[in-house]
User: Which sequence fits this backbone?
């Protein structure tokens, strides 16, 4: 059974030395609290891989969207780039403000949900528009 834990927040980020490009997802091992040093704290916490905890991984993420989604329904979708098919490994719905440019949430994924230790996944924040996936941000993540 897949579990999904969400903690949504709209993050207001000012100009800082470490600017995150629109269309980027930053993954962390723990929640980064929005505040005056948010970008500095996020940069320090950023990870390209996560270690398993008994076949589970808790993925905290901050997505800097290319543009506002125009709808509150979004998905965090995991793809195996080495797979022959273009089907996602798994997808988890979440909500954000329709005019949000930055969203922060988390999800717990596991081997029960089709994930494998040692695999690299492409992670996307998307929404479906007339059956077509619209991608707002993406990154890659290695599960250790």
Assistant:
């Amino acid at each position: 059974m897949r579990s999904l834990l969400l903690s949504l927040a709209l993050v207001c980020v000012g100009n800082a030395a470490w600017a995150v490009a629109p269309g980027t997802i930053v993954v962390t091992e723990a929640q980064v609290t929005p505040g005056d040093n948010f970008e500095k704290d996020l940069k320090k916490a950023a990870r390209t891989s996560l270690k398993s905890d008994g076949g589970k991984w808790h993925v905290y993420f901050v997505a800097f969207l290319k543009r506002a989604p125009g709808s509150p329904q979004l998905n965090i979708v995991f793809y195996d780039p080495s797979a022959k098919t273009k089907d996602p490994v798994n997808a988890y719905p979440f909500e954000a403000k329709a005019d949000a440019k930055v969203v922060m949430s988390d999800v717990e994924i596991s081997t029960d949900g089709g994930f494998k230790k040692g695999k690299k996944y492409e992670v996307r924040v998307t929404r479906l528009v007339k059956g077509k996936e619209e991608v707002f941000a993406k990154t890659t993540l290695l599960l250790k």
Remarks:
- The helical segments are 38-45.
- The chain has one helix and ten strands.
